[in-house]
Amino acid sequence: MAKKIINEDINDEIREVLIEEGAEDIYKCYQCGKCTSICPWFQVDMYNFPVYRFSLETSMGMVASSEDKDELAAEIDKIYRCVGCDACVTQCPHGIDTPSILRAARRLLVDFGSYPETLKSTAQKIKNVGNPLGEPAEKRADWAIDLNVPKFQEGMDHLYFPCCLPAYDSRIQNVAKATAKILQQYDISFGILGEKERCCGEAIRKVGAEKVFTEVCKTNIKEFSGSGVKNVLVSSPHCFTTFKNEYPEFGADFETLHITQFLSKLIDEGTIKPSKEFNKKVVYHDPCTLGRKNGVYEEPRNCLKCIPGLELLEVEEFNRNLSVCCGAGSGGLWMEWEKNERIADVRLKQLIDTGADIIAVACPYCLQMFEETLKSMNLEIQVLDVTEILYESL
Amino acid sequence: MDIIVCIKRVPQTAEAEVKIDSTGKDIEKDRLTFDMNESDTYALEEAALMKEKFGGEITVISLGDEDAEETLRIALAKGADNAIRIKAEDFDELDAFQTSQILKSVIKDLSYDIIFTGCISTDDAYSQIGLTLAELLEIPHAALVIDFDANEDRADVQRELEGGLIEHLDVALPALFTIQTGINEPRYASLIAIRRAAKKEIQVIGKDELAQSEFISNSTLEKLYVPPISKQVEILDGTAAESSAKLAGIIKDKGLL
Fold it and tell me: What's the number of domains chain B is made of?
């Protein structure tokens, strides 16, 4: 039965604080519900995630408000279900930024340690050792040991910033290796920061840990400007979006390109010409942060279309700005949800139903989320980064 | 039922590379995050559960520097009614015995039925404060409590002993209990409680406000060092069945099962 709200339940102070923290869009909502129907959680049968209610509840100051311990835990669980994919933002007639409304609540909760333990641990690892995996800084460049990748020096054209997963994860290191080998093959001037490289902080900011983000952001800006970095190439759309759209407000003064943008340009110019046949059916999954948030749809496809023998497939309807999130954004990568409550299951089914041999991604988070989820689903389909496929064809 | 909970703000070292600082008596803390000591969060939750059952007030106390007020506010948002900070900056290095005496000098004047502390702090790991404090206050105590219930004047507790044994005790109140992790599920704070806690006054007590000024020390920290890395490898020979039996014997002998 629906809960009856009485005047005493409404809390003006909470509403005002949430507006100060970024929930200023709440009054634009007229409850049409398009956000709920486009939200990836809507496609997960076993989980009810009423996005349309967040603006209304925030306008009444009724967010994470229950006095009951278990009800409050369920409310906070909901706040941390949002994967920040922006599907609702692009479909809302008024462009309401619901992820930011939820992030306003997250910021207040984080300051009082009232958020999931797994995310607390992730924030601690990023602050304490500079990456969400808790790995030591001196191992950050181990992926590059056999490749003769130089340390970045002033005068080099590009800094390659691989992201924490390609730097440390034994499987995803192959993405950083493939990228470095392509750049070396075409004599691109680039270097890496090695052990001075630290997490970009994008995900932890979305979790609400603003203080940790601000600290890593300022540390990175200082390191980049001190090293004379002007152009950054990244493998992760998450590093891409935060360097490009968020770091400038903290004084960053460098250009950032996602690796697929850079390689696509070299392909268009005729510098890169894949020659080996890659006779596979490949479906490309648009990462939310690269596509919907930054409009980079065609460049990753361009990197695949130029490969001889490769048949590029699309997920019917749910591609480009309608792509469904893998579930790893805004801290989702570190959350543990029940097997029948996972967005990745839904998206993988859509991708597998295309009949593809390979799922191509352009984001380390998507790569890890899909590979881990496939293991628990007992399904076998290969997941590769666009750079891994491109390197194979050169 | 009035309850006191002693809490400590500690560096989070589980996910960090711990380095000894230049004094040789502490660790480098610049890049570390801080949070409420883990077992203290369970102690606070146990207090909140008792308050739900019997009413009364929870007072949290921390001997810490100004940053400890952040941790006290978290406690206020998660069920505490009052918070006291004893100014650590008024003291030089303190050992566990001195800390217990200082806590006692404040707590002896407060009204309480139960005192909860965490069973161990994750930084110094002395496990001494709770029991020493109880002895100084001359009240009963039980350590490593894994199950707790109470009525108005007695507590029914279970505590962990070595080798998987559990001791079941009936304890007269007032008494002190050191709480083991896992006894309950610590709660989140609601946004309303967070806002309320942000505005609450924290009572700050300096050294000169305490009834006594000298606190006897019974230990001195000589130096901190990283233990030398050693390897001990034992190869179990024989068939799969024989080596499995040997392995099972070793696990049993070491009390791991």
Answer: 1
Chain B residues with CB-CB distance to A134 below 8 A: 15
Instruction: Order the strands of the A358-361 sheet from edge to edge.
Output: A311-313, A281-284, A358-361, A382-385
Residues of B within 8 A of A131 (CB-CB) are none
Rounded mean pLDDT of chain A? 95
- Owning domain of residue A313: 270-392
pLDDT per position as a tens digit, A258-290: 999 999 999 999 999 999 999 999 999 999 999
CB < 8 Å to B187, chain A:
69, 72-73
Q: Residue A2's pLDDT is what? A: 62
What average pLDDT score do residues A294-311 get?
98
Domain count, chain A: 3
Nearest CA distance, B74 vs chain A (angstrom): 5
3-state secondary structure A279-294: CCEEEECCCCCCCCCC
Query: Which CATH number covers residue A58?
Result: 1.10.1060
What's the CATH number where A164 sits? 1.20.1050
Mutate to test the interface with A, among B33, B50, B51, B76 (most CBs of A within 10 A): B33
What is the number of alpha carbons within 13 Å of residue A23 lying toward its C-beta?
28
Nearest to B192 among A11, A113, A129 (CB): A11
Q: A67 and A169: one domain?
A: no
